[in-house]
Specification:
mainly beta; Jelly Rolls; seven-stranded mixed beta sheet
Length: about 270
């Protein structure tokens, strides 16, 4: 869904091209041979600012926002992101980011954790804490899965076929326990650095119970698609699960967007 306002039901995304300024002039991230380091520096600046959208306003952004009820994007051309936002004639498909935001209501009191990954990166910020950080590049968790906001290290992985890419796994973030009905801000950042192909997978794993075993929650094993509405899934989503054991319907675990999004997104 494109061009939606703040009453839209889903993650509301804005695409930013870090290779050009808001008035369409090249930035230091534009050159193909030297632009990657400035691009990563700008991404980190945004993240370390507390995900302040103001830090991205100096860059070219899509005139329209894109609303997504889920993020399950199998490997495809990096051109598809600018095309989805209808700016493919205004930018090249590299060194871009998409910042998604919404406010959701927790559907269940059982512990859960985010599971996913992105090419080149995917980060999830849950209630202003980094709850997932994985991809070919990471910004906070590092290769050892150290989630400082939760004071825990997480190493759990899930097999998936991400061909033509080579990172054939998704990673889990820390367990989260929130009372059913609690309203929480959630943000997602995905990005593509060199161009070529990209993908993005965002799911959750639910614990079998709220009781820990040997100090840890025990997951169900099968994942659920992270969903922000109960609308029918877009055609093609989930048709190819890439070998991932995942429940695409996620009944009983849909994080519905709340009216508080109007305030959160201003």
């Amino acid at each position: 869904m494109k061009g939606a306002g703040t009453n839209a039901s889903g993650l509301i995304g804005t695409l930013y091209d870090l290779k050009q300024t808001a008035d369409r002039k090249p930035t230091s991230a534009a050159p193909a041979n030297t632009g990657i380091a400035p691009y990563r520096s700008s991404v980190r600046d945004f993240l370390e600012s507390g995900w302040s959208a103001g830090r991205l306003q100096r860059f070219f952004k899509s005139p329209d926002k894109l609303v997504s009820g889920q993020l399950f994007i199998t490997s495809r051309s990096a051109d598809d992101a600018p095309k989805a936002f209808e700016v493919e004639k205004m930018m090249k498909p590299s060194r871009w980011v998409v910042h998604y935001r919404c406010y959701v209501e927790v559907p269940n009191s059982l512990p859960f954790r985010f599971v996913g990954s992105g090419d080149d990166f995917l980060l999830v910020r849950w209630n202003r804490k980094i709850a997932l950080d994985d991809g070919y590049e990471t910004y906070f968790s590092g290769r050892d899965g150290n989630y400082r906001d939760f004071d825990v290290k997480v190493s759990k992985e899930y097999k998936i076929n991400r061909a033509p890419g080579s990172l054939h796994r998704l990673k889990a973030g820390p367990w989260i326990q929130v009372t059913k009905g609690t309203k929480v801000p959630v943000e997602v950042l995905i990005g593509e650095t060199p161009g070529g192909v990209f993908d993005c997978y965002l799911a959750i794993e639910v614990a079998k119970s709220g009781t820990k075993v040997d100090g840890q929650y025990v997951g169900e094993g099968k994942l659920k698609l992270f969903r922000c509405n109960a609308d029918p899934l877009p055609a093609g989503v989930g048709r190819d699960k890439r070998g991932l054991d995942i429940d695409m319907e996620a009944k009983g675990w849909i994080f519905k967007v709340t009216p508080d999004s109007n305030t959160f997104l201003r």
